[in-house]
Amino acid sequence: MSLEFISLENIQEIAHQYGYWAVFLGILLENLGIPIPGETVTLVGGFLAGSHELNYWLVLGDAIAGAAIGGIFGYWVGRIGGWSMLVRLGSLFRISETRLLNIKEQFSENAAKAVFFGRFLALLRIFAAPLAGIAEMPFGKFCVYNLAGASTWASVMVTLAFFAGRIISLEQLVAWVSKFAIAALLILVAMIAIPVWLEARQVNRAAGE
To answer: How far is Cα 20 from Cα 22, in angstroms, rounded to an integer?
Structure first.
């Protein structure tokens, strides 16, 4: 999800003009919840490094720093005011606080995995850190998985663009990565939603009997 006026061409122009700052701020702002296509910015940075316009290691360092620092900000947003906001949203959709507490507990059990692997999933990359804060994941533990996830994700994205950009066009690379992130998110949603639906169906059937 990105702002409409930030096209791939505009991102390339910004990256050409501001270089490493564009990479750092792009992924940082995305992690703060601003609809900036941080993943695309990172791919553009890796692509420019592959064409020797930027330094690979500096691009990688900027991507890791932006993702990690953005995740920390997101964590504290969730930790300080995220739960009250979630309860208000839940009331709008008629989701009881008890149900939200159950969801919070379930997320807490898988918070480390969500923070680490969420980097590779569309939207979850933005919301994993605030959700970890809402779930009151220990900050030290969060920092470990946040940094590990940021480092792994940035390494994959920058390196992929660095080498693949020499074989295929940047437009094709961005399209493939975006499709993978969306597909992975849909699979995750299905893995969560289907068991919940089946459980609810069994409860309703038992109540009917």
So the answer is: 5
pLDDT per position as a tens digit, 48-76: 888 888 899 999 999 999 999 988 988 88
Those residues whose C-beta lies under 8 Å from the C-beta of residue 37, and which sit 6 or more positions away, are 2, 6, 11, 26, 30
Nearest-angstrom CA–CA distance, 110 and 108: 5
Q: Using one digit for the tens of pLDDT, what is the confidence trace for 93-121?
A: 455 556 556 666 666 777 788 888 888 77
* Long-range contacts, stretch 4-10, CB < 8 angstroms, 24+ apart: 6/36, 6/37, 8/40, 8/44, 8/170, 8/171, 8/174
Contact 46, 11 (CB under 8 A): no
With tokens 């939207």, the residue in question is: 123
Give the pTM.
0.73
